[in-house]
Amino acid sequence: QCPLSNPHLPVPVLQAAHCQMIKDLSACLQGQSLRVDCRYENKTSNPLTYEFSITKDNRKHVIHSTISVSENIYRNRANVTMQKNLVCLYLQSFTTSDEGVYMCELKATNDYTGNQIKNITVIKDKLEKCAGFSLLIQNTSWLLLLLLSLPLLQAVDFVSL
Question: Where does the Ig-like domain lie (predicted)?
C-alpha cells in the first residue's frame, strides 16, 4: 500500500502513479558478466521505459536504454531482460574499468510523477557471485501451484480407480 503524499489533491490518478517505484537494486557477478537487478513495484500496465547508466570520473555514461542512446563502448557488451517487476542488465567482460556508480532509471508511459532512480556502487572485488535463487524466486509460484495440486491429483487418481 502506498500512502498518499497529499490527500487534498483532487486528482487521485496521479497519486497512484507514485506507487511506481524501484524497490531494490542489486549487483552480482555471473561468470565474467556483471548482472544488475532493478526490482520495481508496478501499479500500472503502461509500457515501461528504462535506462542503465554508470557514473565514473563525474561523468554519466549510458550503458543500455530505451530513453536515450547508449554509448558505443557498451553497446556490444550490454543487454537487458525484462520480466514482471524486474529489469536485468547484463554487462559482458566486466573488468575493474567498469567500476562505478550504476544507476537504474525507470519510467512508465503517461506517469507524470517523473522517473524513478536508484543507484548502486559496483566494485569488482566486493561483488558476490550471482546465486541461483533468482530463478527459484521466479518459479516459486509454479512450484507452489504444483505442490498444491498434488493432493488434488492423488484424489482424482483415487476416484478413477
Answer: 12-121
